Amino acid sequence: MDDENIVRTIKCFKCGADVSESSRFCNSCGTSLFAICPFCGKKLDGGSRYCSFCGKELSSAPKPPAEDFVYVDATGTALKGFFICTHQVTQEEYQNVMLKNPSSLNGLKSPVVDVTWYDCLEYCNKRSSIEGLKPCYRINGEDVTFDENSDGYRLPTEGEWVFAAIGGRRSHGYTYSGSNNIDAVAHYDGNSNSIQPVCTKKPNELGIYDMSGNVWEWCWDKYNSSSSDRVIRGGSWYNSDVKCCSVSYRCNCNPYPSRDYSIYGFRLARSVKN
Predict the structure, then answer these.
(1) For residue range 54-85, what is the model confidence (pLDDT) as tens digits?
(2) Fold topology of 69-271
């Protein structure tokens, strides 16, 4: 049997009843069973102040800037902790900021598509300005500089994207983001014939949706030093080769795609400021 389908039980530390390991509350006495450490992802007894595994105070974790963002603790890696959105930018969100919807495949709750890499940066800057944040990018034609001191919206780096996709420090090592079963977490050629509304598949270990399938996601990084191509990750509804939707698969695209690009979208990240 697949490990992810095994139902495990724990005992309520207050009344001793057997409860599903995934339950937040005891069905018998209603006690909160555990807290989840925002740093290492370990489950702790309800009411815990400090993590018995990593030793950190639970309340010291940076608070996400909005309900649809999660904090990704990157302790022990070359990355700094960061915030990332739980869903791909939707057509509704894009239209509300840019006052237009470039998508050739319609659906307000579906990811915006037909966006170039530069379109994504423009959206990040404009939304940052609207919300009173400092824009991340200085754009001069095709030359872009990134302000690391900005608190605004931005594209995730490739390293951040991959770390979030695998589930961060809570990773179970799945092939796809959140499961070894692609149909559980991804919209791809085997189960979809177009883009789909976001957050309709199973999330990964961090509560992030669609990091496998639906649309390829633009990242900040160049694909390599000798090309202007940018990294894209995650695969899309159009891909029949399932490896494209794996968290390990790396691909590239010109920042101004010349072919049909109804398979490209993006999600937002933000830096953690002390």
Answers:
(1) 887 776 667 777 789 999 999 899 999 999 99
(2) paralog of FGE (formylglycine-generating enzyme) (3.90.1580)
